[in-house]
Amino acid sequence: MKITVEEDKCCGAGQCVLIAPEVFDQRDDDGIVILLDATPAEDQYEQVLEAAAVCPAACIHLDDKA
Amino acid sequence: MTSVQSVLVVGASAAGLTTAEALRRKGFTGSLSLLGSESELPYDRPPLSKQVLSGAWEPERAQLRSAEALAALDAEFVLGDPAVGLDADNRKITTASGRTLTADAVVIATGATARTLPEQRGVRGTHVLRKLEDAAALRAGLLSARRVVVVGDGVLGAETAATARQMGLDVTLVGPQEAPMTGQLGALVAGHLADLHRRNGVKLRGGVLPDALHTEDGAVSGLRLSDGTELEADVVVTAVGCTPATDWLESSGLNLDNGVVCDAYCRAAPGIWAVGDVARWHHQGLGRLVRLENRTNAAEQGLAVAADILGDGKPYVPVPYFWTDQFDVKLQVYGIASAVARAEVVEGDPVEGRFVVSMTGPQGPECVLGWNMPKQARLQRAAVVDHYTRPRQPVTP
Ligand SMILES: Cc1cc2nc3c(=O)[nH]c(=O)nc-3n(C[C@H](O)[C@H](O)[C@H](O)COP(=O)(O)OP(=O)(O)OC[C@H]3O[C@@H](n4cnc5c(N)ncnc54)[C@H](O)[C@@H]3O)c2cc1C
Ligand code: SF4
């Protein structure tokens, strides 16, 4: 799995960090998403999928084939 | 419960689409249909009052998923055809064009529609903001206007006023509260919001209601307020709340009361669920019926409903959350502040334009608000989780 985030769409909601704290963080100054791990281990997939699903800006994209 | 072979989602927007995606992700291989009254592919509403209205984004950018992602869902999309009736016992939906659709599980995700003032019907230059076409019409109106009056001092009104002001217009924000969004933010933060608007040149008219709409040749020309003030306007935007879209369920026999009334699992009747802005469910943590109109609820409730449809449900007990962007400020709000809650700045400093406020009610911390401190507000959220997830003790007489 390969994750990409569209930073300029992110609204800093931090829902992704609540769900998958090992994969996502937020910048201290403006809360925009930081991708900690673009190719997470398989045990993270479930959380990452859920984070992408609830991201209110629909800005987390997953490529399953990569 | 026998296993579900087919799911029909009515309403193809944030809540409906998330439910459908979650079903597939959790391994549902049966037939999946989404019925929507709008003909556009599913799009997102928060950008409508922000980037789409300001012109920073082309409307297509508000689309929720790419065409490929939608195709991968392996679902049938029936768009541009509103549901007009539900036979709840047989889970049978009738549409405006005369289709009938049935499924083992029906998900009601029809959202809400913008409320209007009776006098604005048919008057050119008056607008609401709920749909993509509303945003396009309002943007076009604003581009040729000078003076705008926004009626309604909730989140949508305040946001629309900020965007219009940033487009260079003369903007007046009218509403019944002392400061915009006092109901959602409490007096302390709403006071800062009022200052932010004034500093940026929005004229605030608090503590008043619109009294009469003036027109000239069928177009709006101004507004009289309840205190007698007359305002001139080329455009009037009403942001006076919305109504759950349940008119099509009138004769379904479902319990409708400010939304589709549901149990703790968001079930409205056997085989029927409701999700998103339209759903009023029993929030077990709060011990009462709750209907939320925010973007994260649409998604989180979609996940909860998908799990329950597949027999793996839990009571839905979210910490409510919304954000709003106005001028250079990003506000994050976790929880619901009651009118009696005490506010306290717990991080940062209002003077520096970055702070976190905690609101404490009779039962402890209930709401955390971040002002240009999204990450810090999220970290403080932990303090209110208990208030929403701890089941209430039954009241002993
Ligand atoms: C302009 C605007 C800005 C917003 N900004 C924010 C924000 O900054 N932060 C935040 O948290 N929230 C925000 N919100 C709220 C958020 O967008 C909503 O909570 C969310 O869209 C709810 O999703 P939903 O799918 O439940 O309902 P909706 O988005 O209302 O979708 C319901 C869908 O059902 C369709 N439908 C209705 N009736 C029928 C029928 N009879 N048959 C078939 N289909 C039907 C509708 O056409 C619509 O497509 C904003 C809302 C608006 C309007
Ligand atoms: S959930 Fe989405 S919008 Fe929120 S911080 Fe993460 S990526 Fe950004």
TrEMBL record, chain A:
Keyword entries, A-Z: 3Fe-4S, Electron transport, Iron, Iron-sulfur, Metal-binding, Transport
Domain 4Fe-4S ferredoxin-type: 1-29
Cofactor(s) listed in the protein's UniProt record: [3Fe-4S] cluster
Keyword set includes Manganese: no
A Pfam short name: Fer4_13
Gene3D superfamilies attached to this UniProt entry: 3.30.70.20
Keyword Transport part of the UniProt annotation: yes
Example GO molecular function: iron ion binding
The protein's role, per its UniProt record: Ferredoxins are iron-sulfur proteins that transfer electrons in a wide variety of metabolic reactions.
Name of this protein: Ferredoxin
UniProtKB/TrEMBL annotation, chain B:
GO cellular component terms, semicolon-separated: cytoplasm
Swiss-Prot/TrEMBL cofactor(s): FAD
One MF annotation (Gene Ontology) recorded for this entry: oxidoreductase activity, acting on NAD(P)H
Keyword DNA-binding: no
Alphabetically ordered keywords of this record: FAD, Flavoprotein, Oxidoreductase
Domain Reductase C-terminal: 321-384
Domain of life: Bacteria
Domain FAD/NAD(P)-binding: from-to ranges: 6-302
Entry-linked InterPro entries: FAD-oxidoreductase/Apoptosis, FAD/NAD-bd_sf, FAD/NAD-binding_dom, FAD/NAD-linked_Rdtase_dimer_sf, Reductase_C
Pfam families linked: Pyr_redox_2 (PF07992), Reductase_C (PF14759)
Keyword Oxidoreductase in record: yes
Protein name: NAD(P)/FAD-dependent oxidoreductase
Organism: Streptomyces nodosus
